[in-house]
Amino acid sequence: MNDIFLRACRGEKVEYTPVWLMRQAGRYLPEYQAVRAHVDFLTLCKNPKLAAAVTLQPVDILGVDAAILFSDILIPLEPMGMRLEFSDKEGPLLSEPVRSKSAAEKLIIPDVEEDLPFVFDTIRVLRKELEHKVPLIGFSGAPFTLGTYIIEGGTSRNFLHTKKLMFQNSSVFGYVMEKITDTVTSYLAAQIKAGAQAVQIFDTWAGILSPADYKKFALPYAKKAISELRRAGVPIIYFVNNCAGLLKEIRQSGADVTGVDWRIDIGEAVKRLGKKCIVQGNLDPCALFLPREKLEERVKDILWKGETARGHIFNLGHGVLPQTPVENVTALVEAVHTYGRAK
Amino acid sequence: MNDIFLRACRGEKVEYTPVWLMRQAGRYLPEYQAVRAHVDFLTLCKNPKLAAAVTLQPVDILGVDAAILFSDILIPLEPMGMRLEFSDKEGPLLSEPVRSKSAAEKLIIPDVEEDLPFVFDTIRVLRKELEHKVPLIGFSGAPFTLGTYIIEGGTSRNFLHTKKLMFQNSSVFGYVMEKITDTVTSYLAAQIKAGAQAVQIFDTWAGILSPADYKKFALPYAKKAISELRRAGVPIIYFVNNCAGLLKEIRQSGADVTGVDWRIDIGEAVKRLGKKCIVQGNLDPCALFLPREKLEERVKDILWKGETARGHIFNLGHGVLPQTPVENVTALVEAVHTYGRAK
Question: Residue B284 and residue A213: Cβ atoms within 8 Å?
């Protein structure tokens, strides 16, 4: 098996910089579209055979160094008692957002293995299929990010409901966050038990917080989950979107690898995370619309700067966009493999 | 006249930290709502008597140290040939977005004094009304931010049209940006000529760029406008929203004052901008939902850290939200005036 990704996560010597891409399985791939023509998104997430099939597509098509479970960050919210829908226009919608003590009391800390069997079944199918290929990454939304969905009822512009709860009723906010943190922890532990060889925690919305608020209302919960997952013995990646102002705090997360979005120079990010960090990122997903030559220049620049860290895993700074030409994604993976340095 | 704001912009000695707030005239004020009950947003912007009246409201109600012209960053786009509408749900909409050479050729560099007389009339009315009160700030969208509206046709999630034009047709992108830059420059020069005593350039969307792209596709145009406005002799404030990863580049803008959003610690921002900087910001607008005591703690923290710069003008990190309780905004201004330090 190609274990270069896992070795890079552990800060071990690697022959070249490994690469995988957030949303590498997704709408930009015609093979994915073909599957989605017959099933909606949530049905696909819950069907182990189909979810495994789309997980494998980019491994075969792109030649990436890791597979990531096809699923959604919001999946653990359903067994917590939230009703989840995906609208094509407005994105995820959760009915009855939680903004009061009584609503918070109704939130369930689920038995994830019982309630989300399809996730662990998908992982088991995938581990067999990937046996001689690449490692499998499991994932979950981070506690704060899941909290925003539970409190807002979907995505938001200003996240005012979340911040109002934080600021005006911090005990209810903390109570919600503790329930989510327990859920995330057992969810990721069960993914690891089923066979996930690394996990990524996506803090998609923590970047809306000031550093002081991040430190108080988001970081402690991510940190707690990470510390409890530590004993499972697999690498933990923590990705905060829009992280540029938060890196001093993120540095305390305890994760093995820190994912970085594209709005900061990766060399600067390494400086703020400390040279002992292992960093993942950080090409702008829109850079996949550059002409090949210019795309390669950017890849080289990120590889060069990534070298200042103890380890570097190449990735985008956010997910592949649906409009992206597949050949450019292939070219990206090739370029990383061509120019990625031994370490 | 209370000229403490202007002196702070110039790095001169001040008795306390001056404060004004982005969107201090707006929907959170019942007095503003009363005016808007009779006219739509764009009509209000174009009526000098009414626009002046709402500009003055926060000066009287809050006691801020500066007034800012009531208008919209997109106003200069209409005489450039774009049709502008404000939809309550989707925000600003511009028909026929510019994404080709032929469309770019049709963009007009307007005679702003002829085409936007209401702006300069409003400024003249305001200067009389403000004579013994506070200085008047004029403003415009920054070239890049206006470019995104022209190219996207409104706001956007990923700004893919803008980045595609940047990446795939940089000469057309540059051509559009030059026309916008000329427009912004003459628009702000005419505001100054009419009586604006300082100007703020809002780069609301530059924070979607990687530092390398910001340096190439946004900064040069802002810099050019700033350098040409220099000779007008009034302080120039440059505000980039979501600036945390871009401060090393923003430092080169040539502006007198740098506005900073709330997603970075203002002390960290000063470190990256250099201690000779004059900084403006940076309270999270949602912090106006905190209980008074906690709001005051945050104010003190920002004032304390702002002191590390050569000068500090207190502001929010973004505009006042419509849902904000007026009494909290008043409390904020009072707190800044109570705890703001002599310098």
Answer: yes
ipTM above 0.85, yes or no: yes
Distance CA A46, CA A117 (A): 9
Query: Do the chains contact at B248 and A268, CB–CB below 8 Å?
Result: yes
Active site residue A23: yes
Helix, strand, coil shares of chain B as percentages rounded to 5?
50, 15, 35
Segments in chain B below pLDDT 50: none
Q: How far is the C-alpha of B183 from the C-alpha of B147, rounded, in Å?
A: 12
Q: Are A125 and A48 in contact (CB under 8 A)?
A: yes
Q: What's the maximum distance between 2 C-alpha atoms anywhere in chain A? A: 57
- Euclidean distance between CA atoms A19 and A4, whole angstroms: 9
- The architecture of the domain spanning A4-339 is Alpha-Beta Barrel (3.20)
pTM of the model as a whole? 0.97
- Distance in angstroms (rounded) separating the CA atoms of residues B264 and B285: 14
**Which pLDDT does position A91 carry in this prediction?**
86
Q: What is the pLDDT of residue B274?
A: 96
Q: Rounded to an integer, what distance in angstroms lies between the CA atom of residue A131 and that of residue B167? A: 39
Task: Please write the tens of the pLDDT for every residue from B170-218.
Answer: 999 999 999 999 999 999 999 999 999 999 999 999 999 999 999 999 9
**ω into B328 cis (within 30 of 0):** no
Which of A28, A149, A214, A238 is catalytic? The answer is A149
Alpha-carbon span A60 to A331, nearest angstrom: 14
Distance CA B171, CA A204 (A): 34
For chain A, the domains span 4-339
Question: Residue B114 carries which side chain, given as an amino acid letter?
Answer: E
* Annotation marks residue A272 as catalytic: no
Q: Which amino acid is at B265?
A: D
Contact A313, A236 (CB under 8 A): no
Q: Grade residue A343 by pLDDT with cuts at 50, 70 and 90.
A: low
> With contact defined as beta carbons under 8 Å apart, do B114 and B183 qualify?
no
